[in-house]
């Protein structure tokens, strides 16, 4: 149960990061999800990503909607404030929180029901607004908490555990995000921490709206051989367009790839995404190519993963809103209230 | 030379500073600014004046009316019956002329002959060839249309004895920065004035006389005042979705922010206004910002309130401050989007599923809109709960005269119980929902405050004092009971009712909001008939004890509701256990503001009914 705290026991040999914190300092409460749930792997990946990056836990805000996915924020970074809000409405809450204080890291966690069905409208608009945050969809292709109903992301022809077939065209969240102008779009698999962790780190470092669609199997209701979002299908049809390494700005780049197969992308904060390409035609800075790749692999029944698209030249919401550099929530009456003198002048305009 | 067309039988209404002028126009014809110039000119002459827009949900083509009541005694509510009709709309001219009181006047465009059936023998006609004059005098088609409105204002200045210098002064004010537009506008005013004085005996028996009633007063609409109140109250985040009649709240906030909230050094904004994709997102953003320590609001009307219900329950239960301005319009459903009503009292008092309750504020004037808007942020922060300011279309979108707005420069914002890093350092174990002070209000922290203390998980699911999820029914009930206590504490922070009573009065009037505009006229009218009655204007929900005391201290109170279902009366029954026998409803739900005459008639009818029944039983 989520109210059970983890025991405060830790191995004396645990490594510490630049802040002197161990991975334990990035954990949350004990999970209440089913054993083997992909979502727990996502929590673990976030913990690892944040610890390795030496993110200050309390400078993160975790916001979610409703559903199994939206429980995830309980299970990592217990020193960060969390907000488990309303079904499908995490984007608006995250937007408001972000506009109040741009100095925190924002991690939004949602699911396919939360973002592709009830909250599809809010999802589309937060992408358009370029809220500076990391938005994760834990995508299991089913409704877990209500016991296995059909999801809008399940591939057509996919079947749930009860045998119900997906009869409608599915919504590809990554494609949608790219279409609507997201400046960082990736797809990964909860079972592939090697890929997911650097993508999370890159998404957290990216300035602007970073979206990661994480295929995250539901072991209880959607893990049959006929399910598009089960472990079997995902392992079999999962294609990484590149291997991804994330190099924080503090580290010296030591990895060495063969020339012609690699690409370095330096982010605004100085960190570097190091890509080792597996598909020659892949260029994640080209929007049309990114969309083409997703579609090309989908036609073959494959799932294109990795960093699908990145654009570092967009403005985030604070830039388009032209807000001051200090957080709005730090301003007091002395800076916000114009005073009675100004009001007297305003009165005169109404006579 | 034309004359006032009148039959020999016709009488003329002879009144100074006490009449109603109504403009019947076509929506989108540019009449609004000319009409409001007319009203403001009267205001500048020191005469109490109250304009009321009665407009369609339409951009162009449908009928729209602008009703201006002028009353030296300061009765600024609506009054039925028209003394002078400016009949500019051929679609409605028949009904418009019908609504003129016997002896009244009809100004119309005589470029076209008035049909015989429109000629009444008991009203006076003021024909002016507006179209012909404008065709002759102006070149551009747009000017020919627009200046018809200015020409009739010019004519009215002669008919009613408006100081012409006041009008030309207003034109200069209005076109500051666009000086090229001043001469043609003044010319149009002169054309009308000249035609009227040349062709009619001016002024009419219906006329204005300068007075001194508007010292330290302004003419402003409620939504503009709310926008200003948000600036003064420290709001930094506005998220909204356009919805009549609430839209101008955010327009006003934006207008004054641009002027007053720009950082001097960088030119950057100390505010943010986000147009949301719908009302759900609008309130969601405001709640997200409020959770993160910014003062945030949204503005909407009935349909938006319906959409925001789920989020309001979240804010109530997870205790996040947020301010919501509900500029009520006529429901249910789309209803009459451009007509007024007090129809959302119950849906806002208990918005959302489960047991909920929200603080409501009921301003009655633009000045109270300003003050309540600013205070709403203090109250929301203090209570960590939504505060809904309940205005309506009548108050929100009509200019009204009220006292000057004032801000006490010594006043600071009350941010409520928020712990900073130093305070957290002193606390052994922080509990977000711990009632340490016994007033039902716990301490909150903003995200990012302290590296190891003060973080918590905000959730709409059941939680304990430490914000942890719980399905323990007793713990859940404790939280619900604390929220009940919090609403009792709220009474210390929300305005008391305004009560006026005299010894021995057995009857009372209970009302809120815009009904106030009619009350002085009702009291004076009843006094003339020997009836003395106490009044209680409710300014906030939940109700203070003084509310039920007032009801209990009278034999009978008239509860005035501008809705069909007597929603205020229902709230009094639910919240204070007020007896049905003690309350008599006076209802108005035709989409326009209740009048003094309606209230007075209802009170007198009820009194005679009681007398009759008492006579029978005796």
Number of strands of chain B: 23
Net shape of chain B:
globular
Query: How many DSSP helices of chain A?
Result: 11
- Report helical residue fraction of chain A: 25-40%
Q: Hey, roughly how much beta strand do the residues of chain B contain? A: 15-25%
Instruction: Using a beta-carbon cutoff below 8 angstroms, give the protein chain pair with the largest interface and the number of residues from each chain.
Output: A-B, 65 and 76 residues
What proportion of the residues of chain A form beta strands (DSSP E)? 15-25%
CATH architecture of chain A: 3-Layer(aba) Sandwich
Structural class of chain A: alpha/beta
Per CATH, what is the topology of chain A?
A: Rossmann fold
Range of helix content of chain B: 25-40%
Q: Tally the structural domains of chain B.
A: 4
- CATH architecture tag of the largest domain in chain B: 3-Layer(aba) Sandwich
Radius of gyration of chain A: 21 Å
Q: Characterize the main sheet of chain B.
A: 7 strands, mixed
Q: Name the strands of the widest sheet of chain A in spatial order.
A: 2-1-3-4-8-7-13-9
Side by side, the strands of the main sheet of chain B go 11-10-12-13-15-14-21
From the alpha-carbon coordinates, what is the Rg of chain B to the nearest angstrom? 27 Å
Number of domains of chain A: 1
Overall CATH class of the largest domain in chain B: Alpha Beta
Find the structural class of chain B using helix and strand composition: alpha/beta
Description:
The complex is a heterodimer of chains A (351) and B (618). Chain A is built from eleven helices and 13 strands. Chain A is an alpha/beta fold. In chain A, the strands form three sheets. Chain A has an eight-stranded mixed β-sheet, sandwiched between helices. A three-stranded antiparallel β-sheet of chain A has the order 10-12-11. In chain A, helix 2 (90-100) packs parallel to helix 4 (120-129) and helix 3 (112-118) packs across helix 4. By secondary structure, chain B is an alpha/beta fold. Chain B contains 19 helices and 23 strands. In chain B, the strands form five sheets. A seven-stranded mixed β-sheet of chain B has the order 11-10-12-13-15-14-21, with helices on both faces. A six-stranded mixed β-sheet of chain B has the order 3-4-2-5-6-7. Chain B starts with 14 loop residues before the first strand and ends with a helix.
């Amino acid at each position: 149960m989520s109210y059970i705290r983890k025991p405060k026991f830790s191995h004396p040999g645990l490594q510490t990061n630049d802040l002197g914190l161990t991975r334990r300092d990035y954990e949350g409460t004990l999970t209440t999800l089913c054993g083997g749930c992909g979502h727990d792997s996502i929590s673990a990946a976030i913990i690892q990503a944040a610890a390795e990056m030496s993110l200050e836990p309390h400078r993160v805000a975790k916001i979610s909607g409703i559903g199994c996915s939206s429980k995830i924020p309980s299970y990592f970074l217990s020193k960060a404030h969390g907000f488990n809000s309303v079904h499908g409405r995490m984007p608006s809450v995250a937007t408001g929180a972000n506009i109040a204080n741009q100095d925190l890291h924002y991690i939004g966690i949602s699911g396919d029901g939360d973002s592709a069905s009830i909250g599809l409208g809010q999802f589309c608009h937060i992408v358009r607004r370029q809220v500076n945050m990391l938005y994760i969809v834990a995508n299991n292709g089913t409704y877990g908490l209500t016991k296995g109903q059909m999801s809008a992301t399940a591939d057509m022809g996919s079947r749930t555990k009860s045998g119900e077939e997906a009869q409608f065209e599915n919504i590809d969240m990554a494609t949608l995000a790219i279409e609507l102008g997201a400046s960082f779009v990736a797809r990964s698999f909860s079972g592939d921490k090697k890929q997911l962790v650097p993508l999370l780190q890159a998404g957290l470092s990216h300035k602007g709206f970073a979206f990661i669609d994480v295929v995250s199997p539901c072991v209880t209701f959607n893990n049959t051989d006929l399910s598009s979002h089960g472990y079997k299908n995902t392992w079999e049809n999962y294609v990484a367009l590149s291997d991804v390494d994330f190099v924080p700005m503090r580290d010296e780049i030591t990895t060495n790839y063969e020339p012609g197969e690699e690409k370095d992308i330096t982010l605004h904060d100085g960190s570097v995404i190091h890509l080792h390409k597996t598909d020659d035609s892949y260029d994640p800075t080209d929007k049309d190519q990114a969309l083409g790749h997703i579609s090309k692999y989908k036609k073959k029944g494959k799932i294109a993963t990795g960093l699908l698209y990145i654009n570092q030249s967009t403005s985030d919401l604070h830039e388009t809103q032209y807000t001051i550099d200090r957080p709005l929530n730090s301003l007091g009456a002395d800076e916000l209230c114009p005073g009675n003198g100004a009001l007297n002048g305003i009165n005169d305009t109404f006579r | 030379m034309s004359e006032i067309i009148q039959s020999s039988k016709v009488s003329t209404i002879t009144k100074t500073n006490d009449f109603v002028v109504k403009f019947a126009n076509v929506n989108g014809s540019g009449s609004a600014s000319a009409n409001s110039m007319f009203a403001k000119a009267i205001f500048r002459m020191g005469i109490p004046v109250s304009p009321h827009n009665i407009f369609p949900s339409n951009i162009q083509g449908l009928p729209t009316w602008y009703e201006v009541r002028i009353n030296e005694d300061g009765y600024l509510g609506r009054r039925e019956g028209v003394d002078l009709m400016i009949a500019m709309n051929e679609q409605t001219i028949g009904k418009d002329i019908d609504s003129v009181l016997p002896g009244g006047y009809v100004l119309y465009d005589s470029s076209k002959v008035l049909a015989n059936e429109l000629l009444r023998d008991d009203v006076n006609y003021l024909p002016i060839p507006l179209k012909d004059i404008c065709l002759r005098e102006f070149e551009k088609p747009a000017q020919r249309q627009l200046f018809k409105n200015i020409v009739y204002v010019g004519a009215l200045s002669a008919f009613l004895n408006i100081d012409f210098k006041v009008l030309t002064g207003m034109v200069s004010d209005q076109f500051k920065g666009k000086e090229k537009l001043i001469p043609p506008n003044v010319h149009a005013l002169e054309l009308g004035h000249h035609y009227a004085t040349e062709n009619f005996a001016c002024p009419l028996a219906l006329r204005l006389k300068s007075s001194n009633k508007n010292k330290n007063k302004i003419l402003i609409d409620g939504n503009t005042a709310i926008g200003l109140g948000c600036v003064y109250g420290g709001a930094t985040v506005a998220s909204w979705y356009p919805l009549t009649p609430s839209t101008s709240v955010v327009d006003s906030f934006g207008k004054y922010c641009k002027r007053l909230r720009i950082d001097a050094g960088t030119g950057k904004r100390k505010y943010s206004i986000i147009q949301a994709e719908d009302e759900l997102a609008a309130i969601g953003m405001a709640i997200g910002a409020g959770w993160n320590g910014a003062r945030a609001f949204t503005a909407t009307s009935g349909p938006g309130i319906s959409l925001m219900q789920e989020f309001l329950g979240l804010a109530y239960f997870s205790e996040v401050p947020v301010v919501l301005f509900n500029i009520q319009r006529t429901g249910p459903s789309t209803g009459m989007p451009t007509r007024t009503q007090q129809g959302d009292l119950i849906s806002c008092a208990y918005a959302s599923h489960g047991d909920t309750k929200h603080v409501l504020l009921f301003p009655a004037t633009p000045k109270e809109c300003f003050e309540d808007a600013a205070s709403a942020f203090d109250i929301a922060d203090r209570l960590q709960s939504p505060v809904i300011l309940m205005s309506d279309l009548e108050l929100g979108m009509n200019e009204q005269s009220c006292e000057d707005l004032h801000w006490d420069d010594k006043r600071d914002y009350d941010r409520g119980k928020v712990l900073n890093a130093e305070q957290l350092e002193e606390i052994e174990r922080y509990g977000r929902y711990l009632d340490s002070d016994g007033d039902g209000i716990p301490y909150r922290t903003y995200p990012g405050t302290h590296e190891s203390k003060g973080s918590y998980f905000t959730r709409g699911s059941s939680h304990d004092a430490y914000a942890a999820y719980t399905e323990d029914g007793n713990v859940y009930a404790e939280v619900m009971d604390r929220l009940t206590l919090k609403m009792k504490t709220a009474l210390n922070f929300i305005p008391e009712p305004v009560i006026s009573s005299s010894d021995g009065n057995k009857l009372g009037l209970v009302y809120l909001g815009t009904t106030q505009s009619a009350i002085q006229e009702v009291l004076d009218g009843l006094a003339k008939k020997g009836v003395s009655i106490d009044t209680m204007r409710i300014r906030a929900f939940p109700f203070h004890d003084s509310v039920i005391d007032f009801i209990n201290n009278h034999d009978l109170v008239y509860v005035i509701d501008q809705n069909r279902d007597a929603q205020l009366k229902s709230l009094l029954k639910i919240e204070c256990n007020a007896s049905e026998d003690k309350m008599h409803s006076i209802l108005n739900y035709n989409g326009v503001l209740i009048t003094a005459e309606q209230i007075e008639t209802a009170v007198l009818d009820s009194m005679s009914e009681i007398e009759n029944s008492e006579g029978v039983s005796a």
